[in-house]
Amino acid sequence: MDVQRILVxxxxxxxxxxxxxxxxxxxxxxxxxxxxxxxxxxxxxxxxWLDGRxxxxxxxEADAADAWERLTFTTxxxxxxxxxxxxxxxxxxxxDVKRSIFAELDALTPARAILATNSSTLASSTVADATGRxxxxxxxxxxxxxxxxxxxxxxxxxxxxxxxxxxxxxxxxAMGKSPVLLAKEIPGFVANRLMGAVRDEAxxxxxxxxxxxxxxxxxxxDALGYPMGPFELxxxxxxxxxxxxxxxxxxxxxxxxxxxxxxITAKYEAGEFGRKTGKGWYTYE
Length: 285
Ligand code: CAA
Hints:
Elements: E1 5-9, H1 13-24, E2 28-32, H2 36-55, H3 61-70, E3 71-74, H4 77-81, E4 86-89, H5 95-108, E5 114-117, H6 125-128, E6 137-142, E7 151-156, H7 162-174, E8 178-182, H8 191-207, H9 213-222, H10 230-237, H11 239-253, H12 262-269
Parallel strand pairs: 1-2, 1-4, 2-3, 4-5, 5-6, 7-8
Antiparallel strand pairs: 6-7
Helix pairs in contact: 1-2, 10-11, 11-12
The structure holds acetoacetyl-coenzyme A.
InterPro entries: 3-OHacyl-CoA_DH, 3-OHacyl-CoA_DH_NAD-bd, 3HC_DH_C, 6-PGluconate_DH-like_C_sf, 6PGD_dom2, NAD(P)-bd_dom_sf
Keywords: Oxidoreductase
Pathway: Lipid metabolism; butanoate metabolism
């Protein structure tokens, strides 16, 4: 299937960057948010990012202008959905919200449109049955920051067709991304399971008083070549997201080893979510 128009639902940290990446790659893209203020803030942020690319000499001025021309920020779901070939839902991680968005999208988009969710915690089978097209529903999971990180996990549910997977993988490649295909749904998918294993070990080392947060991060970076230490990464992703991912995994498996680490729960309850609140494992100005 030939994808030309992409609709991103939700203009938060992920949605705005996914939309920008799609527009830079040549897709006509709409980013929709329920809140006009949120959409305007996302638009201003992406304008700054684009100007920064040009200033750094990473993007030609004409290409930036074309990308901007292809990108719209809106609150009008019906208008944005009417001609979409692919929808990437990046709204809040709540099942009731996602199910109603998928039911609405099913009614508003053309029958050909693929409906993907960027969710890292909710497998697409939990929203596919809110639509009449489960074969066109899958996870298309980007990583933070989505403009930079190359991997995109494409997770099929039991109904997802091969054509859907191939089309979404082709879009990811056109965006300069590397698709990671999952043959079945599993909590955490692949990358977050790998990240979780490193994070759990880092938390265990810190809790046992073996080394400081800073020194564990230094080991990850300067011994293993990771771009960020596990504590820095938790602050980037958000300790709220980290907590909620583990709660969601526990709710799906009932396995106590999937519960959030007590140190994560404490940060979550203290409202210390990382960069977004100015304090997490580190303090930010
Ligand atoms: N948005 C857009 N672009 C950004 C950015 C952001 N938030 N942060 C950095 N960049 C860009 C910079 O503009 C720069 O681009 P150029 O080289 O073209 O100028 C490039 O990224 C490198 O940035 P910096 O030199 O400032 O810093 P860095 O080399 O430390 O890279 C990083 C920053 C890319 C975030 C890097 O530290 C990194 O890869 N960290 C690991 C991130 C990671 O693991 N993400 C996965 C999170 S898990 C997840 O998202 C899944 C989930 O379900 C929760």
